[in-house]
Amino acid sequence: MKTPLTSEHPSVPTTLPHTNDTDWLEQLHDILSIPVTEEIQKYFHAENDLFSFFYTPFLQFTYQSMSDYFMTFKTDMALIERQSLLQSTLTAVHHRLFHLTHRTLISEMHIDKLTVGLNGSTPHERYMDFNHKFNKTSKSKNLFNIYPILGKLVVNETLRTINFVKKIIQHYMKDYLLLSDFFKEKDLRLTNLQLGVGDTHVNGQCVTILTFASGQKVVYKPRSLSIDKQFGEFIEWVNSKGFQPSLRIPIAIDRQTYGWYEFIPHQEATSEDEIERYYSRIGGYLAIAYLFGATDLHLDNLIACGEHPMLIDLETLFTNDLDCYDSAFPFPALARELTQSVFGTLMLPITIASGKLLDIDLSAVGGGKGVQSEKIKTWVIVNQKTDEMKLVEQPYVTESSQNKPTVNGKEANIGNYIPHVTDGFRKMYRLFLNEIDELMDHNGPIFAFESCQIRHVFRATHVYAKFLEASTHPDYLQEPTRRNKLFESFWNITSLMAPFKKIVPHEIAELENHDIPYFVLTCGGTIVKDGYGRDIADLFQSSCIERVTHRLQQLGSEDEARQIRYIKSSLATLTNGDWTPSHEKTPMSPASADREDGYFLREAQAIGDDILAQLIWEDDRHAAYLIGVSVGMNEAVTVSPLTPGIYDGTLGIVLFFDQLAQQTGETHYRHAADALLEGMFKQLKPELMPSSAYFGLGSLFYGLMVLGLQRSDSHIIQKAYEYLKHLEECVQHEETPDFVSGLSGVLYMLTKIYQLTNEPRVFEVAKTTASRLSVLLDSKQPDTVLTGLSHGAAGFALALLTYGTAANDEQLLKQGHSYLVYERNRFNKQENNWVDLRKGNAYQTFWCHGAPGIGISRLLLAQFYDDELLHEELNAALNKTISDGFGHNHSLCHGDFGNLDLLLLYAQYTNNPEPKELARKLAISSIDQAHTYGWKLGLNHSDQLQGMMLGVTGIGYQLLRHINPTVPSILALELPSSTLTEKELRIHDR
Asked: Which UniProt keywords apply (predicted)?
């Protein structure tokens, strides 16, 4: 069959070898002519009778076909329960046909309603009138005349579902004795088939659960289980080498083209010890998956069975690689790291922050039920059984929950078991190192996989599924060219990844057959076969086994440490919203004596060197990247390639490295800063960023301005100005007024930059920001305003009063002053602090909430704003911070080093050396504490934070401020001094 698609692109036959492209027409006529019996009328009930009369002929055909099939049985009839299997088959056919047709049927009902009209006085009666029209064969024939592609799909789906059910029953009969050995003296009369457990491939085949009269179940898989059998032997080998706790081996029966697999139920653990062993085993499996290069081990492929995590789908246990990173990605080294590290297994949570398709966690250990996506949508039928019925798009909500271990009815929080996961990973990793000679041996446990068949997933299955769903829209069912045109978009990838020129024709052929494309190869081979057995050669340069042996040779302490760091970072995101530190406050006194600047510098260098070791470099070393933990503006914790911002992203680390280079004279820190900057630009999507001065476009502008000023580099200044337009557009739609997350921080930052540069364009954007902020704040209910700098009144007042003074805007000055008054009214003299109006009404001593942040705001205001109470408030904040602000964690946002910044700023702005001296001694005590216990960072469960506000970068940066107070305060959004002229500070090209 010639189509525009097959004439323009390399092709494979679009008509499958075993079918005739016109057979379906004759078959459709026969199906529609079959008289309906009472058995089919009984099949429908209230839950499944939508458009029941349309489906009746196809179900009647199914019933008759299966009844005739069962009549061929003689002695074997005792092995099955005929009536229940008929019901299973009817359910499967009906379910599949409904998904193919419901869009068209709803559409046609509305067309009839508008054209010929529907009889009835109620919406339900009019729907029933439309449904009853299908009692006449002519109605269905007319429908299929309009939508012939639908007719072909419906006939083929009916036939292939029936044939697949027959095949399963035949295989069951053939293997009855094998299954009897499997279940040992159980009643194995087959009573039910549950089709549709997973996607359909190769003419509608899918994983199916068989239920027997005894209640026992077994899983039928329409593929070779050689990989599952061999994996069981590998697990046996691992256990024999002493891995503890030992791993359970599921029963698998391989029958070459199909197989039987033990049904694994979700079961509760019985004790805390079992949960600990469960997560130790997870670590072991993660090491195996990493070594093998497994992919697609998502939440549906893991079942928590008591203390045993069970991987139930091993067809992607080994994965090959097209190795198109250089052509497909502007950041190939990062893409390679993401796919070839533990993240590539999909067992761990990972977020690709910019433009990601998935915004929910579907990983094996992290994903769970009830999580709503904002990006993935699903269609739901509303107003059912009425003539007002329609499809509406709703956010997708995850359903699976079998991947999480439970005890006493509650899911175990993996955040409490991170050491067990990493310990299990480390044990298995070192077992591989210790047994590397046997693993590399051609007669060893790795090469035993050589002939095993595996699946290769060239694209995410949900992409294929989305296109198949779209292809059932009525617009694509009237003529072949429209449907073909839909699938033509699969060619787009070939401009970036040339090997797909060989793959796409096979993808399209299987999609046209309404199957998820399916590709297989052997672990020891390189020739790929599609779902219909056709070869695709020359895609891979090496086999999966060769890739595993290469990885074995790369194992070592450095790689082990990197993978464990990734595991810790990833699992730290699974905190169920509890991202604040769990560290109890430790009483802390200032050190008895000061130490030389070199002491602080060495500590900062140690932090810098540790981050340097984590960099992912492009081959030319012109660009570098980091993968780490981020806390978004909505306080959602993710692990991903670092975002651009200063808060916990790339720019914060760039500023730290740049200052470290200046204060040590070591050029490799400057090189790292430049490489990170280049890597950031390669990933940057400013149109997707918020406005924030810490997370967003404001952060980008501020960070580049700071870098340009401290280097006296006008080129970087001009680069910063390139993002002003994006920022201006963004602030006009910003809904967040906060200092850290929204407009207040942006306005304050822009005003300070304008005061330094006198650049009119900066003032214009500041004016736009001020206007938007004022409107947002006017819309807030007074009792919803928090206290504090990062999210509350102190930040609003600082921004409005700073800009209002610079612009001589009386209205904004008045509005800003009102927030000073508001916050003053929430000061508690007994506590010597401002109440935190979040839940609990506590009294905090952090930069983000409480006295230290409010103190910084009052200190900055006191430099220009005439208010007699500012100094009194500043002293209260300073005293409260000194008395109660230390012994928390060490972060900037809500920890000791952030609180120390108030002391440094106070000393700097008042020329009073005492707070600086105290700050240095307190910093020394923090360093001494870290030498014993490690740095306590700003996120519960994580010691892997690199960023400025929550992680080690902020600590290192603050140590440099203790040496040199002219290093600009990030908490105060300060700007460094510069030798650039006024002309160099302005925009050059207008």
From this structure: Metal-binding, Zinc
Identify whether the C-beta of residue 568 lies closer than 8 Å to the C-beta of residue 426: no
Q: Is 485 left (phi over 0), alpha (psi -120 to 50) or beta?
A: alpha
∠ CA 569-575-576, nearest 5°, is 145
Q: What angle do CA 13, 19, 22 make, to 5 degrees?
A: 100
- Name the token pair of 316: 């992607």
615-654 pLDDT per residue, tens: 999 999 999 999 998 876 666 778 889 999 999 999 999 9
d(CA 103, CA 474): 7
Q: How far apart are the first and last CA of the chain?
A: 58
Is 67 within 8 Å of 167 (Cβ atoms)? no
Is residue 848 a known part of a binding site? yes
34 by Cβ neighbours in 10 Å (0-12 / 13-18 / 19+) ranks as middle
Residue 327: strand, helix, or coil: helix
Q: What pLDDT score does 638 carry? A: 81
Rounded to whole angstroms, how far apart are CA atoms 682 and 642? 12
CA–CA distance, 701 with 508 (Å, rounded to integer):
46
What per-residue confidence (pLDDT) applies to 841? Answer: 75
Bridge partners of 528, per DSSP, are 536
Predicted TM-score of the model (pTM): 0.89
Decide: helix, strand or coil at residue 155: helix
Q: What is the model's pLDDT at position 572?
A: 84
Residues 6+ apart with CB under 8 A from 643: 353, 354, 630, 649, 650, 695
- DSSP 3-state of 656: helix
Q: Which of 126-140, 822-836, 929-943 has the lowest mean pLDDT?
A: 929-943
How far apart, in whole angstroms, are the C-alpha atoms of residue 763 and residue 755? 9
As a three-state string, the secondary structure of 742-779 is: CHHHHHHHHHHHHHHHCCHHHHHHHHHHHHHHHHHHHC
Specify the length of the chain in residues. Answer: 990
Q: How many CB atoms lie within 10 A of CB 824?
A: 14
- Check: CB of residue 464 under 8 Å from CB of residue 511: yes
d(CA 948, CA 658) in angstroms, rounded, equals 14
Amino acid symbol at 446 = I
Query: Cα separation of 857 and 838, whole Å?
Result: 20
Nearest to 970 by CA among 879, 918, 897: 897
What CA–CA distances, in Å, run from 799 to 504, 765, 810, 822, 977? 55, 14, 14, 15, 21
449 and 306 Cβ atoms separated by less than 8 Å: no
CB 899, CB 833: distance < 8 Å:
no
Bridge partner residues of 529 (DSSP): 520, 535
For residue 910, the SS3 value is helix
Q: Which amino acid is at 879?
A: N
CB atoms within 10 A of CB 755: 15
In the sheet with 208-212, reading across from the earlier edge strand, the strands are 190-194, 208-212, 217-221, 259-262, 252-254
Q: Name the one residue in this structure whose structure tokens are 């070591």.
A: 666
Task: Kindly give, in sequence order, each residue whose CB lies less than 8 Å from that of residue 343, ignoring residues fewer than 6 positions away.
Answer: 337, 350, 566, 570, 627
Token digits of residue 455: 């699946």
Quote the distance between the C-alpha of residue 374 and its chain's center. 12
Give Cβ neighbours of residue 113 (< 8 Å, ≥ 6 apart). Answer: 126, 130, 387
Residues 6+ apart with CB under 8 A from 482: 475, 476
C-alpha 677/C-alpha 693 separation (Å) is: 17
Sign of the alpha-carbon torsion through 834, 839, 842, 847? negative
The CA distance from 326 to 126, in Å, is 59
Residue 804 token pair: 């209002």
Q: Which residues of 156-177 are buried (b: 16+ CB within 10 A; e: fewer)?
A: bbbbbbbebbeebbebbeebee
Q: Which of 546, 476, 536 is nearest to 152 (CA)?
A: 476
To the question of whether residue 473 is assigned a binding role by annotation, the answer is no
